[in-house]
Amino acid sequence: MSIGLILLIVLALAVAGYAIGRARSVRTAGGDARKLHSLPGSYGQMAFLFTAVPALLVLMAWLLIQPIVVENRAANLLTPADIPDGSNTSLVMADVRRIADGLDLVMADAGMGEGELAAMRADFSDIRTRLGNVGVAIGANVTPAVFEAAKTYRADSKTGRTAMAALVLLIALGGLGVALTRIRPDFRARNVSESFVVALLIGSSLVAILTTVGIVASLLVESIHFFRLYPAREFFGSLTWNPQFRGNSELGIWPLLWGTLYVSFIALVFAVPVGLLIAIYLSEYASRRMRAVVKPAVEILAGIPTIVYGLFALITVGPFLRDYFAQPMGLGQSSSSVMTAGLVMGIMLIPFVSSLSDDIINAVPQAMRDGSYGLGATQSETVKQVILPAALPGIVGAILLAASRAIGETMIVVMGAGAAAKLSLNPFEAMTTVTVKIVGQLTGDTEFASPETLVAFALGLVLFVFTLGLNVIALVVVRKYREQYE
Amino acid sequence: MTDATATQTPPRRGGLLELDARTRRRNAAEARFRLYGLIAVGIGMLALVLLLISVLSSGLGAFQQTSLRLDVTLTEKALDKTGSRDPEVMKKVTTITYGKLLEQALAKTIEDKGIVIDGLSKTDIKDMISKDAAARVRDRVLAHPDLIGETVPFTVLANGRIDGYLKGRVTMDSAQRDSNVSPNQLLLADALRADGTLYKAFNWAFITAPDASELRPEAAGLGVAILGSAYMMIVVLCLSLPLGVATSIYLEEFAPKNRITDLIEVNISNLAAVPSIVFGILGLAIFINFAGLPQSAPIVGGLVLTLMTLPTIIISTRAALKAVPPSIRDAALGIGASKMQSIFHHVLPLAMPGILTGTIIGLAQALGETAPLLLIGMVAFVREYPDAPPEGFFDPASALPVQVYNWTQRADPAFVERASGAIIVLLVFLLAMNAVAILLRRRFERRW
Q1: Which of 2.60.40.1930, 2.160.10.10, 1.10.3720.10, 3.40.50.150 would CATH assign to domain A241-485?
Q2: Which of B251, B278, B390 lies at the smallest CB-CB distance from A464?
Q3: What gap in Å lies between CA B68 and CA B193, rounded to an integer?
Q4: CA–CA min distance B432, chain A (Å)
Q5: Transmembrane stretches, by residue range (chain A) (predicted)?
Q6: Which end of chain B is more exposed for a tag (fewer CB within 10 A), N or C?
Q7: What are the tens digits of pLDDT across the range B172-192?
């Protein structure tokens, strides 16, 4: 039974529950809805929730847990001898899964029944060719143990699916039954169904916490795997980044961190003055008409996806900087460079800095401006000596947030900064960043056993800690500043 | 007295407001500061204009494509030796045979029109036609076997380089140096264009066709990517709107002030600032490796983007809920509604425009997001359209921004034009979504 069908049946039951619950409540009150504690609809709602919610929760939990259980059972059938040299359990299990999926196709192709499948043995028939015939390509020859594991996998998945369908439908029916039997005129249906809804609301607000837990857990677990395979001292101490396919990689984080910080620095040097001046100009000088044009334009800049900035770096800014700056000055030949990525990222950050600063500048009380003007200060003097100092903590917060954005930005540096891990001061040279290497190590066919792949998780952890730290500092700074005026 | 007047500076011109050096300096500083501000605004505007011009100028070409009108004689001898018209038998004839027919058709056209170019080789003629064309002709013939034996007019794509020549990307100079195109072909293209065999037309295939391999940029399209992006947006909408609204209602209306509530709030504001690539790592580790969902599937992309969009939706929903005045709640409670009823029947409908605006803006952000999708395998080369939902959510697909990235990684410069064209499509979608959001806000937002 497919999941879609189960969902549909559960929903149909729940809707039926609503109708029956509603009708039944009126009937128990002898047709007079005024004798009921709650509105008839509340009874229906209760029946709906009792039918749908537990069943769907069980369905979700089952879908999450079943693959793990089935996988473990199948993996237990494999002895270490079944795993070829240069491979590992997870690779073999991937084959097992693919064979198990392919078996259905083979059976349909050859018109086999379950019994014939059980009798099929890898030592007698060529499974790999038969799977190949139905379009399932297997990398290695199928050994008997792997084939048996695949058969178990398939059988367990099937039983699991059936059991799940039965259980979910049973729970839905049970919930419906419980709800319907409890319907009496004095039953507080509204209170029950409303506390049910509050529970649901709380549940969905926990998704945010679960997400954070998921992020931290996935980063930590895989990072620990990585540090088991590769010493942490090397990772944090080595100055070379040189991954090799055949092991013996040097995976020092410093060249990547250097590139990240260099690009972010250039971006901030460009974005902070420009963004701040735009904010000041718009809030202190610009006419109404100008504001009406410039502000939305800056917001458009903020709404443009980073891939567009990446393309801009790749086809316009990069070649321009190379042809007019790097080559004439003899600083480099590459169109992707720290400067390219930094400048384009600076453009991306302008709206970020300007809108945050705009808010902060506008929050400075008008009385402070008026006082300054009253003392005879010009507008620019007021801005420089009164408004900016008053807004400074907020602006520092904004800059820190912009810095955290810059460090975590991916597409611009992937397309603009290059891929060579270098420690160099020349801004027209291609360098690489933490995010570029995360993408580089994790795209394509990923195999989760080598330090070359797992290093991406350690890099992600460093990135996460870095940006989180910056954000927390920024929030603290901003919060402190707010306390002054409110 | 006279002495004093003699030593004085010339009489004041502006009466009381004579500018001394200090005032002048201060005014100059004021003007300078103003100018800096203007320059900064100018830089911002210039950046926006340059960005748009750069994308538009390199991308608009992708919406035009060069094609050839050819009368192809589908000889029975070549395509169906047995004469049985059995599709199974005819499938054995490969695209190479069809390519030869196309080549003959073009050669015949050249001969008929009396075009003579010195040194034009057979390969030159063959390479005028896209490598994709033979496959399309074959598909059509397999679908309509009765065409065999007739001379059928076909419209086939021209080679990417010839297309580039008509768009000004390839010139006689560059053709000299390029091994993929010869100057003779360009002369031939000029001649064919003059009599209308070769022409440029609007390129629907760019929007509907699937991606094509490295060697045939002229056939590459956005169909699978648009479909994949649409699927992901459906998933994001269906999950993040209910989840986000439920979370906001709880935090704004029910949550007691305690540690857990604080924890949730801090979490949400932190999630809003976590780099997008970290969400990609989460998707890879949890949804693909742990939960065993398939790679490159829109469902995984949708889940990851949902988690990224949630903070945006929650923040705007809470603002919208906060904006509904307490008098509405009080009035509802006063006539006997429960708290839940007052919220769901009164507050929520009034906050809906704000919520929808925030949701659309969140969706627009999600639509342009690239980095996390790279990690969950959306970069894979996908030629098959995904099935209709819900099964289609689990089929491999691409996504618009990822397709852009994919094309920029390819060697042929024609793909840069395609990538920029894809960006234009993406920007059009974003523009439309933002326009709807602004319209909603203008039309329905109430000020209390």
Answers
A1: 1.10.3720.10
A2: B278
A3: 9
A4: 12
A5: 43-65, 131-150, 162-183, 195-221, 256-280, 300-321, 341-365, 386-407, 454-478
A6: N
A7: 888 888 777 888 888 888 888
